[in-house]
Amino acid sequence: MDKTIGIFGGGQLGRMMAQAALPLNIQCTFFEASTDCPSATLGQVISSKAENGLQDFIDSADVFSLEFENTPLADVDVLVKNKDLHPPRQALAIAQHRLSEKALFDTLDIPVAPYKAVTALEGLQAAVAELGLPIVLKTSRGGYDGKGQFVLRSADQIEQAWAELGPAGELIAESFVTFSREVSIIAVRGQNGDVKTWPLAENHHHNGILSHSIVPAPNSADLQPVAQDYITRLLNHLNYVGVLTLELFVTDKGLYANEMAPRVHNSGHWSIEGAVCSQFENHIRAVAGLPLGSTEVIRPSVLVNIIGQHPKSADVLALEGAHLHLYNKSEREGRKIGHITLMPTDSTQLTTLCRQLAKILPNPLALSEDMTI
C-alpha cells in the first residue's frame, strides 16, 4: 500500500471512505469502540477502549482523518503532536461548539439567524424577550440528527425547555428561521489550496433525520454561487484540507447558515454514482495529498436513506437507475443502515421510481411524487 490513513470512527462514513481509498492503493485503519463496526471488513479496527488503543492507532497510519465532528479533542491533541490530521483541529473545535461556530460565521460575513448565548433560566427569559418567539434552544455542544434541541413556541414553555436542556450547560437560543427549504453545499480543499464544490443538495427530513436529498437542488442556479462563496471563505480561513459541508436555510432574505460539518456528509452520498469524483474519493485524495478530482455531475440524483429496517435487496436493484448501499449495521428504529441512490432520466421517471420505492421500503419516508430534477 502507498499510504495508510487512520480514521477516528468506524461507522458508515469511515466505511465509504475506505471503499474509495482501496482503488488508490490506500489502506485505512479505524479507531472505534466496537471492533464489530461497519468498517471492520475494510481495515484494521483498533479499540478505543483498549489501554494503549490511542497510541496503537497513532502508530497504525501515516496521516489521519475522521468521520464524526465530536471526536474527542483530548485524543486529537495527543495525535497532532506527531502526526497530521485533516481536517485541522481548529475546525473540529469550532464545529463542536455552536457559539464558536456562529462567531466564525459572523467573522466571515456569512448570514445567520439572530442568536443569544444562554447559561441560566433568567438568560433564557431575556433571550425570549429580545429575540421573540418562536425560538430554537440548542445545547452548545453535542446533538445530532435533531437531538439536543427544543423549539420554544410559547413563554409557557420556558421552564420546560430549561429543565430539559439546562443541565447540558451552555446553550444557544436562535430566532426561528422561516425558510422555504433546507440545502447543503459540500466542498473539498486540497493541500495545495485547490477548492472544488459539488452542486447544492435540497434536503428533506423526517423526525429530525435526513430522509432524502435531491441533487442538484431544483431552482438553485442563483443560490449556487452564493453558497459556494460562503463555503470557500470557510475553507480558506481555516486552511482546511478535506471535505467540508455547510448546511443552509433558503429564506426570502437569501441563504442563512445553519451549521457546518467538518467531514463527508449524508447529503453527499449520491456522489458515489452521480458525480465524476465522489465526496469520499476526493476526501481521501485531499488527505493523502493527491490532486483533486472533478465534481461534475454525471446525472441528477436522489439520495434516499434506509432507516430502521432493510428492504429486500432484489426489489431495490430491480428499479431502473437505482444503486443500493448497505452499511453492515443491524436494524434498529431510527438508525441509518443504508442508502439508495436514484438516477432517473427525467422527472416523470423520478415520480415512477418514488412510487415504486415507497412500496419497497419497510419504513417508507416522505417521498413526494411531485419532486423534479
Automatic annotation (TrEMBL):
E.C. number(s) listed in UniProt: 6.3.4.18
Please, one GO biological process term? 'de novo' IMP biosynthetic process
Q: Which GO terms describe its cellular component?
A: cytosol
- Please spell out the taxonomic lineage of the organism that makes this protein: Bacteria, Pseudomonadati, Pseudomonadota, Gammaproteobacteria, Moraxellales
* Domain (ATP-grasp) ranges: 102-288
Q: What does this protein do?
A: Catalyzes the ATP-dependent conversion of 5-aminoimidazole ribonucleotide (AIR) and HCO(3)(-) to N5-carboxyaminoimidazole ribonucleotide (N5-CAIR).
Q: Which NCBIfam families match?
A: PRK06019.1-5, purK
Q: Which domain of life is it from?
A: Bacteria
Which sites bind ATP?
98, 138, 143-149, 174-177, 182, 205, 258-259
Gene from which the chain derives: purK
Q: In its UniProt entry, what is this protein called?
A: N5-carboxyaminoimidazole ribonucleotide synthase
Which family is this protein grouped under?
Belongs to the PurK/PurT family.
One Gene Ontology term of the molecular function aspect: phosphoribosylaminoimidazole carboxylase activity
Tell me the organism.
Acinetobacter pseudolwoffii
Q: What class of enzyme is it?
A: ligase
Subunit structure and binding partners: Homodimer.
Q: Give the reactions, separated by semicolons, that this protein catalyses.
A: 5-amino-1-(5-phospho-beta-D-ribosyl)imidazole + hydrogencarbonate + ATP = 5-carboxyamino-1-(5-phospho-D-ribosyl)imidazole + ADP + phosphate + 2 H(+)
Pathway, according to UniProt? Purine metabolism; IMP biosynthesis via de novo pathway; 5-amino-1-(5-phospho-D-ribosyl)imidazole-4-carboxylate from 5-amino-1-(5-phospho-D-ribosyl)imidazole (N5-CAIR route): step 1/2
Q: Which Gene3D superfamilies match?
A: 3.40.50.20, ATP-grasp fold, A domain, ATP-grasp fold, B domain
Entry keywords, A to Z: ATP-binding, Ligase, Nucleotide-binding, Purine biosynthesis
